[in-house]
User: What shape does this take?
Amino acid sequence: MKKALKIFLSLLLVAGSIYLVRQSAPRFTYKDQVAVLLYHHISDTDTSNVTITPALFRSQLTFLKKENYHFITLQQFKSFMAGGNVPENAVLVTFDDGYESLYDQAYPVLKELQVPAVNFEITGTLADPRARKLHFLDEQQLRTIATDRDANISCQCHSDSMHDKQNGKPLLTTNIVVDGKQETEEQYKKRVVNDALDCKKKLKKAGEEEVDSYAYPYGYYDARATSLLQSVGYKYGFTVLSEMTTRADDPMQISRITAGSPDITPQVLNRTIQRNVMDFNQDYNYVPLRDTLKDLGGTMTMNKDRTISFYLHGKPYKLDPESGTIETAGKQIPLKHPLLLKSRKAYIHFKDLENVLGVQIAHNPLRNSFFERLTPAKARNNETLTKS
Assistant: This one.
């Protein structure tokens, strides 16, 4: 009996120790970056890939709060982009389009849970918010949201009447055809500028104090469009590219992680954020070429002539360790640091690899792997059309 009691107490002690270890294990945290979440429509009856139920919306927010995420305001986010601090595990909630469900379903939950948010409004819908099957906010609903300081929902621009396409091409980035003629460059510029100003004017009329943020319709944008938006006072542009946002990112190319899809459970959303976190704590010097390329989706081969061939996104590269150059697309790119060969493994300097590939590479601590960033940093070229 005594022996059985001792065994029982021992097992109880071990179990208790395991429990204590689990309880005291630190939660996953990130710093100096923000997870900007994207929602559209909330409904118990409507279904689409951008519609979630009120219950799922509430459960996502409560779960993230429980997991020690901190929801921030748009003003806090803008301060962060300018060099200020945000809490660990910072999250910014955004809604696109300005559907009536924002007022009926999301607004009460956001206010109850004290979660600030951003409403990117298509202001052209205010003239007749019931014109379509899916209703939009009316002027009074928009004003209520915009002026409720306790709720802290900032109303910003999703264009006035640019949320459309002509022949499959987005209006914001296209010289459209009017009366059988393609508009000139000057006509295009005037159309984009006037639309952006109309959006700003209507939002200020609704009670929004500062309108300087713009969510690109359908996620399409280019350097020409962003330059025009900046010329009339827009300082922040929100995309639909799924990544975390850092201070180093171009403020006109702010990424957003989709949260408003019906298959995104609270746990899936949590994992999605964690898998996009970037590790800034390590100063990467040399990295194993084969392993890093594998993380990025590429391959590498050691050739008999001691050169190294590798491929990424179908593009071939040939590295000559002796000359310290990499050949690609008929060009010779010199390495700034010598290639290291150790135990039949090739190590390349991190900055050299970024330079040769022409991409920004980040490291995720949870997966312990490298990945290619979709969002260019401020210093990078963004001349080409970008979309999700």
